Every structure is written in structure tokens, then in C-alpha cells.
Amino acid sequence: MNPAPLNRRARHAVLAAAFLGLVFDGVELGLMPVASLSVSQSLLGEAYTPTLGGDWFARFTAALMLGAAIGGIALGALGDRVGRTRAMGVSILFYSLFAAMGSLARSQEQMLLLRFLVGLGVGGMWPNGIALVSECWPRASRPVVSGVMMAGLNAGILLLSQLARHWPVTPESWQWIFKLAGVPALLGIVVLLALPESPQWLAARAARKTPVTPLRELFQPGMARITLAGILISAVPMVGAWAASKWMIPWADKVAGGADAGYKAATQGWWALGAVCGSFMGAQLAARMGRRRSYLLISICATALTLAMFQLTAPLRPGFHAVVCAQGFAATLFFGWLALYLPELFPTRVRATGSGLAYNSGRFATAAGVLLAGFLFSALGGDYARVGAWCALIYAFGIIAIWFAPDTGKTPRPE
Prior knowledge:
Layout: H1 8-44, H2 50-82, H3 84-101, H4 108-136, H5 142-166, H6 175-180, H7 185-194, H8 199-207, H9 214-218, H10 224-243, H11 248-256, H12 263-289, H13 291-311, H14 320-345, H15 351-379, H16 384-392, H17 398-401
Helix pairs in contact: 1-2, 1-3, 1-4, 1-5, 2-3, 2-4, 2-15, 3-4, 3-7, 4-15, 5-12, 5-14, 10-14, 10-15, 11-12, 12-13, 12-14, 13-14, 13-16, 14-15
């Protein structure tokens, strides 16, 4: 028996809340690339050096990714146990409140711990928001709705970059951006108190005769191969985004920050503009070209444009921001693609856990990849262009990885 769908007003409320949750998720993801060097200069004082600043940027990123990996799995499982909206509200409160506490940090170690705690909420938002919207909107609307959701994530990065462009983040003035990142806690409260639950999840809960054990089920015979394939294809864009792409922002800060404090924010803004378009179009591309062919094409384009960004241009050169924008578009096509694809892999009873596990397990690899990139950065004497170029090759693994994943466009979605 199919559950009664939500009415139109309730569906739009679900979409709006999940979209805003991902917008603010994007704000958290974009915060440290803009603020990291300023935070390190302020907290380290005379001990600060440009190479040490880059090393701490890698550590802050790795802490966020590790927290997001754990949060995505744990809070995704929570969403399958107690409901999508409850877990989503908890996730928003986690990333908002711990981000705001960053304004009170008095040492690099305190900030490192807070970035890990922020990551727990960042990771939990994605699987619960995506599962909730996927289950509340009809099949015909899913490519567009999935694209809108992932565009929200990068719209948050774009929003933050524009704020930082007009009110530069400096060693003397950086606390304000962390206080601002705490405001979405209000959305978390609204989600917990007022947002309707997924009818599919409610029906699945009513039909269950035994307690759900989603993590165990994901690795049972018949599901284990699907789960591992989801992890593999999610890891490629995740590691590529943070171990390769994000180095362009501290690179821009190093080259141009002395003359133009807003240049790093402008660089992130151009990247985010391309990313908003790319993350929306990824789901449309998957729907039109097919899941495998589109992922293959995205992998090739992301590799080529990331190499071009680090080897064929540089901050302050003509055309740098155009290449940054194009790279942002290509690299984030993956995430719109994943928003459509991952919920198609898993049945309703384990959808949030499965999507969260697949999407966020890549962040374990990302944390390790970012730390290795940090070591490579130090070994290469702080050469951002060489580090970025070597790490760009991560995207090329997608050309191989996609052949291990099911082509869900040819099979019915498990409900």
C-alpha cells in the first residue's frame, strides 16, 4: 500500500527547509577557506609563517571532513531510526552552534576541535535532507529538485564569499563571520518543531516487524556490493574537491592578499558561481545522458579544468577567475549527480543511512587526502600550483570507478 503523499504546501515547505539547511551547510564548508589564514595569523601571532598557515588550513579541513564523515553516517542512521526531520534539525543545530563558538576560540587546537564538531552537523544534513526531499516529491520532479538542493549547498558558499568580499576577513577582524554562522540555529528549531515527516518513512516504520539495523543491512549479501560502489563513486569528487580544488583560495590569498584583502573572497565567489550552476546541472545531465556516461564525462572535464587552473593560469593573471568559475562548474556536476543517484541505490528503510554512508565515507579518504596534500605542500616548499596539479589527478579515478556502480537509470528505484 502506497502512503498518502504530502499536499503541495507541505512539499514546498520540505523543499524550502532542506534547501536552506544546505545553503547554511555550504556557508560552513566555505568558511575556513576564506578565514583560515586570518585565524592562524591572529591565534599564532609572531609564530605564524605562510607555510605554517597552509599546514593549518589542511588540518582544519581534515578535521571538518573527519567530523562530516562520522556525522553523516551516525546522523544518517539516526534519520532512519527516528525520522528525517528530527535528524535534520539536530544536524543544523550542531553545525550552527559549534560554528558560533569558533568566535571564542583562543588557540589553534580549540578551533581544530570546533571544526570537527561543526563537521558532525555538516555531514548529517546532506543524507537526511536529500532522503526527505527525495521521498516527498514525485519521481518526475526528482532531477530538478535534486539539482535545486545541491545548488543550495554552493549558493551558501557564494553567499559567504560575497559577504567576505564586502567585509574582508582579516587577522584583526575574523570573529564576526563565525558569529554569523551561528544564526541558522533558528532554522534547526523550526525544523524540529514544525516540518512534516516523510510519508514513505512513516509507512516503512509502521510496516517494520523488527527493529531497524540499517548499518548492518547495508553490508548484508546483495547490498554490500551496492554500498561499496556508492562509497567509491562518492569518494572521487569529495577527495578531489578538498584535496585539490580548495587550494586555489589560500593560493589567491598568498599572492594577492597583501594588496587586496578581498581577492580571496572574489576567487571563492567566482568558483561558487560556477558551482551553483554545476551542482544544479549535474542531476539534469544524469537524467538526460544516463548515469554512467554522464559521470564519465564529468570525470574527464574535472581533471582537465583543475589541471588548467593550477598550471595554465595563476592569481592576478587575466582569465584566472574565468578558469576558476569553469572548474567550479565541472567539479560540482558530480554533486548534483550524486543527489539524484545515491537515493536510487537504497530502499526507504535504509535510504538516509545508505546515502549518508556512501557520501560521507569519502570524507574519511578526504581527511587523509587533505593531510597528505598538506605534507606534499610542505615538501614542495609551499608551492600551491604544484600541489593542486598533483592532486587534480584524483578526479581521473572517476573514469574507472563508475564501471563498478549499478546503472540505476535502467532499474526501478527500491522503495
